[in-house]
Design goal:
The relative contact order is 0.21. The chain is 33% helix and 27% strand. It has helices at residues 48-55, 78-88, 104-114, 121-130, 146-159, 176-192, 204-207; strands at residues 2-14, 21-33, 37-41, 63-68, 71-72, 89-92, 164-168, 196-200, 212-217, 220-221. It has a single domain (2-221), classed as Rossmann fold, CATH 3.40.50. Strands 6-7-8-3-9-10 form a 6-stranded mixed β-sheet, with helices on both faces. A hairpin with a 2-residue loop joins strand 9 and strand 10. The radius of gyration is 17 Å and the shape is globular. It has 228 residues and is α/β, with parallel strands linked by helices.
């Protein structure tokens, strides 16, 4: 079953006062099954981040559609999209974006509490244990290493039991050894929690850890293992 799908997705814009039209995405058709771990790779300027923003409802397409868990998010209004994004889409960014005045546990359950829902303590503890954060549960972000902070960001993304997790260069600020550790945990989460994960990366070695690779160039999907 498709958990994430795009149909003839396009994003065009003009640069500054120029009349030149940049085709950041130029007709992307993408289909991702529930439980897949996908990497999207390509050179700088290929459209990777633009695509991720479209998939997560962080930007609106010029034309085309984005379906998440059967819902066309490209047709939602601002308020409807904000609620859907909070409940159905988890984000993991290169910068961990943890709130400095909240401890690990508080950061993890924040998205759940923002939705007015009581956290599922058993599930949250399962995530914390799976990511090796049990001993750090009440630590503050500035007491953690970069790798530990990224684990917290991943736990936070999992906390709402989202339809998909979108990871934008999640190991970009980590050394090579820590990067592989975090990627291993992402892969474990995809299996253990039956989670669909879409990861943007320019690193070919990291991309190879995913179950399927999608390659973007000039706003289009080319070759690779896209299997569309």
């Amino acid at each position: 079953m498709d958990i994430l799908k795009t149909k003839d997705l396009k994003k065009y814009y003009k640069t500054g006062n120029s009349k030149i039209i940049v085709k950041a995405l130029d007709g992307v058709d993408l289909s991702i099954q529930r439980g897949e771990f996908i990497s999207i790779t390509g050179t700088s300027g290929s459209g990777k981040t633009t695509l991720l923003h479209m998939l997560g409802g962080l930007d609106t397409p010029t034309s085309g559609n984005v379906y998440v868990d059967g819902k066309d998010i490209s047709q939602m209004d601002k308020d409807e999209l904000a609620i859907f994004r909070r409940r159905k889409i988890g984000f993991v960014f290169q910068d961990y974006n943890l709130l400095p005045l909240m401890n690990v546990y508080e950061n993890i359950v924040l998205p759940v509490r923002l939705d007015g829902i009581r956290p599922d303590k058993t599930f949250i503890d399962k995530i914390i244990n799976a990511l090796g954060l049990k001993e750090k549960k009440y630590f503050m972000p500035d007491e953690l290493s970069g790798g530990q902070q990224q684990r917290v960001a991943l736990a936070r993304a999992l906390a709402t039991k989202p339809a998909i997790i979108l990871a934008d260069e999640p190991t970009g600020n980590l050394d090579s050894r820590t990067s592989l550790d975090v990627l291993g945990l992402i892969k474990t989460c995809a299996t253990q929690f039956s989670q669909t994960i879409v990861m943007i990366t320019h690193n070919e070695e990291i991309a190879q850890m995913a179950g399927r690779i999608i390659r973007l160039e000039d706003g289009r999907i080319y070759g690779g293992d896209s299997a569309l």
